[in-house]
Amino acid sequence: MSLLFKSRSSQTEGQQKSLFASPYFFIMNLIRQGVHSLGEMWRTPLASLMTIAVLGLSLTLPATLYLVVKNVSQVSSGFEDAAEISLFVKESMTQQQTQTLVKRLALYPEIDKVEFISKGDALTEFKQVSGFGQALEYLDANPLPDVVIVTPTIRHRQPNAAEQLLKKLEAEREVDFGKLDIAWLERLNALLSLLKESVITIALLLLTSVTLIIGNTIRLSIMDKKEEIQVMKLVGATNTFIHAPFLWTGVWYGIIGGLFSFICVALMMWWLGSAVSEVAGVYETSFDLIGLTMSEFGVLVALATALGFVGSYLSVSRYIKEIEPDKV
Amino acid sequence: MINFQQVSKTYPGGHRALEKVSFHIKPGELAFLTGHSGAGKSTLLKLISLMERPSAGQVLINGVDLNAVKSRQVPYIRRDIGIIFQNHRLLERYSVFDNVALPLVIEGTHHKQIAKRVHGALDKVGLLDKAKCSPATLSGGEQQRVGIARAIVNSPPILLADEPTGNLDPELSMDILRLFEDFNHHGTTVLIATHDIGLIARMRYRSLTLKDGRMIQDPLAEETL
Question: Is residue B48 included in any domain, yes or no?
Answer without folding.
Answer: yes
